[in-house]
Design a protein that fits this description.
It is a single chain. The protein has four helices and 13 strands. By secondary structure, it is an alpha+beta fold. It has one domain: Hypothetical protein YwqG fold (Roll), CATH 2.30.320.10. Strands 5-4-3-2-7-1-8 form a seven-stranded antiparallel beta sheet, with helices on one face. Strands 6-11-10 form a three-stranded antiparallel beta sheet, with no helix packed on it. Strands 9-12-13 form a three-stranded antiparallel beta sheet. A hairpin with a 3-residue loop joins strand 10 (about 240-245) and strand 11 (about 245-250).
């Protein structure tokens, strides 16, 4: 059992919080214009073989790379791939590619997995001049904000680094009160919610693979059928101030986006039924 570094006022809840601890991959960002084709990144240009058709919407509009995870760069996390490149694409529209009525429908978003990336650059697409520049769009159409004083470069993106961490259940998880009890809310709300904010900053906020989610609204999973196989958090991209006065990750207004997959599909490396959600 992990010995949690809890704020002192939560010590009385240790016996309930520690059994909920899960390991996850914490993701840190670095704003840059220099990444390789294979490198993990948010935004930027993807790894794609020349014989692979670039993903589009049903109308033929190009999707944009939201995230690329090269698992050769990621610490091993039980149940997740140990190699290969996983990609997330979204449309530049007011919903960031999400269909609220059918959040698993990969028409305006796409998830692709390349289990054995080709390391020969001659076999890959390297000229992306055919793509519209992502940064030409406002945060009403992409989950990023470009500061008015900054002139973005076509190659701007966020390089990623990874650490293996562990955290207890998030306070926005729909099972939180069931597992921890409702008395903890009184402790969180004391001192103008300072302790609740500290709990979120320490254990909940941030980009991650696996572990527990962050929501700014309600946990949508509570409304899913009880007999349905639970979803695993595949990727969470949170609000990120990024490079000050340049580009930040916004999800409209300090929001968060996440992608979910059933454990059986993840085990089989089947990314055709991904549940996508974002809120702000």
């Amino acid at each position: 059992m992990v010995n949690l570094d809890l704020p002192g006022d939560l010590e009385s809840f240790r016996s309930k919080l520690e059994p909920t601890v899960k390991t996850y991959i914490d993701i840190q960002t670095r704003f840059t214009r220099k990444t390789t084709i294979w490198q993990s990144k948010f935004a930027g240009f993807p790894y794609l073989p020349k014989d692979f058709e670039y993903p589009t919407t049903p109308e033929g509009d190009y999707l944009h790379l939201l995230a690329q995870i090269n698992f050769d760069e990621v610490p091993n996390l039980a149940g997740f791939p140990r190699t290969g490149i996983l990609q997330f694409y979204i449309a530049r529209d007011g919903m960031y590619g999400l269909d609220w009525e059918n959040p698993t429908r990969q028409s305006n978003f796409r998830v692709l997995y390349f289990p054995e990336p080709d390391l020969n650059e001659n076999n890959l697409i390297t000229d992306f001049d055919f793509l519209p520049t992502l940064w030409d769009y406002s945060k009403e159409f992409i989950p990023f904000y470009v500061f008015p004083s900054y002139v973005p470069h076509r190659d701007d993106c966020f390089a990623l680094s990874f650490d293996l961490k562990a955290a207890p259940i998030s306070d926005c998880d729909y099972r939180f009160e069931e597992l921890i009890g409702n008395e903890i809310w009184d402790v969180f709300q004391a001192d103008n919610y300072a302790l609740g904010t500290e709990y979120q900053e320490r254990f909940v906020n941030g980009h991650r693979i696996g572990g527990y989610p962050h929501f700014t609204q309600a946990d949508f999973r509570e409304a899913l059928p009880g007999n349905e196989e639970p979803y695993v958090l595949l990727l969470q991209i949170d609000f990120d101030p990024g490079e000050m006065e340049k580009i930040s990750i916004e999800w409209r207004d300090l929001g968060v986006g996440n992608f979910w997959i059933k454990a059986s599909a993840l085990k089989n490396l089947n990314y055709t039924e991904i549940l996508y959600n974002w809120d702000c």
